[in-house]
Amino acid sequence: MSQRSPAAPRGRHAPPLPVRQDQQRRRLFAAAATVFARLGYTEATAEAIAREAGMSKATFYEHFRNKEECIIGLFDTAIEVILAAMRAAGERAAHDEPALRVRASARAFLGELEKFPDASQTLLVEIVGAGPRAMARRDRALDAVAQYIDELNRRDFERGAAPRFASPHDAFAIAGAVVELASRQIRTGRPADISELEPVVERLAMGLLSSNG
After folding, report:
1. Model-level pTM?
2. CB neighbours of 209 closer than 8 A, spacing ≥ 6?
3. What is the pLDDT of residues 35-53, one digit of tens each?
């Protein structure tokens, strides 16, 4: 989700401005994830993020008006990466049994969180205290994950592989449970390995489906 990009060459070898700006933004996102995870959103500052990125505070403000805009941008980017990973996993398992599709999507979601622990803490923990705009983004992201889960179920239903969810709220219940389970793991370290949540997610999803069968 957020990996530190190397500093761009300067002078006549410097890349075009849009490329430099994209590299700067990536470095700032990686630095912000580190700072938010280390200090928490409340104590984090634009100066600390810029320093972590090896940039000036003025450069930070060229990209973001304040730390709220920065965390929202980081959150939006991270959600796009996670949803893309889930969709790719779902497509690879398109003709599998529903339980295997659920498992593949859960593994993709949890795997992305495991790869980027600092960004994951921002995504699931720090965003909660970042104000109304950030919470609105979080709600929208949960809706997007739930819509994806509901879409997978609709496809399985249409090919006769699974019953249809009784309600769209079923898909949201799964999305909300997965996010809360992952958030708890990030905050408390329980379970020790985030992949241990995969069978929990599978049982939850398949339990809802069996109740509708």
Report:
1. 0.84
2. 98, 153, 162, 163, 165
3. 999 999 999 999 999 999 9
CA distance 166 to 183: 27
How many helices (H) and strands (E) the chain has is answered by: 9, 0
- The three state secondary structure string of 42-64 is CCCCHHHHHHHHCCCHHHHHHHC
Q: Which distant-in-sequence residues (6+ apart) come within 8 Å of 45 by Cβ? A: 67
Which amino acid is located at 195 in the chain? S
Other Cβ atoms within 10 Å of 11 Cβ, number: 5
Instruction: Assess contact for 156 and 162: CB atoms under 8 A.
Output: yes
Neighbours of 213 (CB within 10 A): 7
Instruction: Please tell me the distance from the alpha carbon of residue 125 to that of residue 41, in angstroms, as a whole number.
Output: 9
Q: Residue 170 in contact with residue 101, Cβ under 8 Å?
A: no
- For the chain, the straight-line distance linking the first and the last C-alpha, in angstroms and rounded, comes to 38
Q: Are 30 and 3 in contact (CB under 8 A)?
A: yes
pLDDT at 11 over 60: no
Give CA–CA dist 11/15, Å, rounded.
Answer: 9
Per-residue CA distances from 82 to 2, 15, 110, 111 (Å): 12, 29, 9, 9
In degrees to the nearest 10, what's the CA dihedral of 53, 54, 57, 58? -110
